[in-house]
Amino acid sequence: MRHNGFATPEQLAILTEALKELGAELPLDSPERETLAAEIMTLFENGIETVDELKAALSNA
Question: Which of 26, 44, 54, 60 could form a Cys-Cys staple with 33, CB 3.0–4.6 A?
Answer without folding.
Answer: 26
